[in-house]
Structures are given as C-alpha cells and as structure tokens.
Amino acid sequence: MSEAEAVTTLRAAGFSGPYACAIVTGTGLGTVAASLDDAQALDYERIPGFPGAGVSGHRGRLHRGRIAGRPVLVFEGRAHAYERGDAGAMRVPLACARALGARRLLLTNASGSLCPEVGPGRLAVLADHINLSGLNPLIGEASDARFVPMTGAYDPGLRAGLRAAASACGLDLPDAVYAWFSGPSFETPAEVRMAGILGADLVGMSTVPEVILARFLGLPVAAVSAVTNLAAGIAGGAPHHAETKAVAARAAGDLARLIAAFVAGLPPEEGDA
Description:
7 helices; Rossmann fold; alpha/beta
C-alpha cells in the first residue's frame, strides 16, 4: 500500500516521468543534486513509505530535474540496513522510481579501498559485489520473483557508458569488486584482509541491497564508488566517518562531471527528451 500511496503523492507533486535515469547519492555526495536544472525537491518525510534520513551526510530529499538536458530523479541520501536492521529500506523509493518511469538506476557510494593505488579521492565503477552482511532485501518476499539471478547484475552496457563518460572527462575509472559489510562499525583489519582474499577491492556499508532490489524490479543498474579512505590496516588506514564525509565532498565535483557526461551519453528514448 505504501508504494501506491507514495506514487500517488509524487505524481500529485509533479514528479511524473518518464526519466532517463534515477540516481542515488551516497555519503557526502549529495551535491550532485545541486547540478540539476529545472529542479524540484520533496523531503522524504513527506512521501508515504519513504525512509527517514538517519545518517549525517544523507539529507533525505528527492529531486527531479535535468542533467545534460535529460530528465532525471535524484535520491539525495539513502537509508542503510544498519539503521533499523532492514536491508529493504530502499524498496519503496526504488519501486517508485520504476513506477514513475525511470529507465535505469545509477547508484553512488563512499567506500574504503584495499588498493593503495586507488586511494582517497578516486572514483571506481563496480563490476561485482560480495555480500558479507548475511542480509538480503528480499527476505520475506513470498513470490518466486525473490530468486533473482545476479550474474551480470551491474549492467555491462551502463558500465561501458560510465567508462566512456570518464574518458571524455579525463578521469580514470577502474573496475572494482565491492564487499558489503552491514556496519555501522567500520571493518577490522582482519575483516579487510579476509575481504581481500575473497577478491574484494573496496569495502562499504551500502549499495548491494539496492542492486538486488533493482534487479528484482527489472531496472538495469550500475554503481560508482568514491574512495574516501584506505580500509582498516591498509597502509596504516584507520577510517572514521568525518574523513568519509570530507573526502567524499572533495570527490563530488568529479562525480558530478562523470554523471553529467554519462547521462548525456544515454541513448535517447521516446518520452524522456
């Protein structure tokens, strides 16, 4: 019921689509919303079923507007599984994005790096993930749709578009595997070493539930990570939230340029011009 109520509220507020892309911003990356043209915003608390904003660096506001002349939805901030133990906290917002006509989903996050050569301030495109949290947003879903295939979950075409956009902007955008820990405490050095043995390049506390939900909802999805610190124990890394917010804010300019070039390069579709 909350999804239908949310969609009704958003349409009444002028948020009807379609949209070339929906974008979720991570910690310290909400300035992407400031780059919108013809913008309109609505606080999450005014939308039925939307999560409250419970983490500093996540404002909790939905924007509609244009990037590179294309209509987009921007979720300024996300709810995390660690806030209330709910891995499906972003289910209603993402379902609304699809119902309002979003064609695809771009996720962003802040992460810790296991690779010193991809250090603070760098961007990376996610190629795959490892779910180390023990959580899943589809737990409790009764239909067979819950058995979501995750091969190629990070859409190859969208990833190619991000790499082309990075090249046009003069940015290096390496591929990375992201390991999801539940948080909210940061990972221990031993946990980081384990993640590296398993094949992770980055660690963080978000994104993976939204990728699973996007595939469940039939939305092609890609994700870009802003590296804000070296993970615990990597070259002396000792992460903390203030560092995450500060470095993410510095990386937000590059991310905004990347997103603008990416959205400009999306194939035109009827109704979203």
